[in-house]
Write a structure and sequence with these properties.
CATH class of the largest domain: Alpha Beta
Helix content: 40-55%
Pfam family, one: HTH_1
Protein name: LysR family transcriptional regulator
Shape: globular
InterPro entries: LysR-type_TF_proteobact-type, LysR_HTH_N, LysR_subst-bd, WH-like_DNA-bd_sf, WH_DNA-bd_sf
CATH topology of the largest domain: D-Maltodextrin-Binding Protein, domain 2
Oligomer: single chain
Keywords: DNA-binding, Transcription, Transcription regulation
Family: Belongs to the LysR transcriptional regulatory family.
Length: about 290
Amino acid sequence: MDLPSADWNHLRAFLATVEQGSLSAAARKLGLTQPTLSRQITALEAALDLMLFERNGRHLSLTDAGRELLVHVSEMGGAATRLSLAASGQRSGLGGLVRITASDVTSVHELPQVVRAIRLRAPQITVEVVASNDIENLMQRDADIAVRNVRPEHPNLVARLLRERRGLFYAASSYLDARGRPKTLDDLKQHDWIALGPVPRMHDYMVGMGIPITLENFRIFSENGVAAWEMCKAGLGISPMDEEVAAKTPELEKILPEHLHVTYPVWLVTHREIHTSPRIRLVFDLLAEALS
């Protein structure tokens, strides 16, 4: 597979078609007409002497050769994106404040490294982190960009789905040594629970998952996710947490992970001004790259 002989515009057309799922959507993303994009794909196949897509009417599916090419072109596309972001970050005229809001857990456990990357690539930009679980921050103009687990429906907001994450339930080894390790769902009735937010809301959610506990099982609660997590680490009961965050604390143990697990999306949300603000556009793209 002789990639050096391929035109980057043709490779980019191939990558966009795979990512968008159709020629029409890829053409819109690249600002091309569909016939132009189709000609670029055909030219790439001719240059490589490979068939990259199987065409069944309007449906496209990758061939084995197309899947092999995708691995290499994705790496090239990532490198091109990083180069573009680095160049953008050094441009003059990008100075100013960008306010990022995220949950308290995300703000404490993930954003420091992300903000470090933003500062390295765009040193003219000042970053304010608004640690809040309130999904209304954007609409009240308290922030420019939000990292959220639900997609706001307001038409003046732009949202990008970054990934799916998984949450599990944990307890400190010291707590489990004293209270016993639950082997069944019924065993959970004998344990103390820590609620993130109002107890009735979390209780209803847990009952919906088939967990046979009552309101009396919740002995501690906090609206602050970091505080609730510290209570769990201190051995005060069972608490939910993102799996990647919890992995940083080896003294905690997973509780019945085959039964107690949830998945949730990570959305990056901003105002429509992203289309006219290079500063916000740059930080949005850097956040998307880091959190994906």
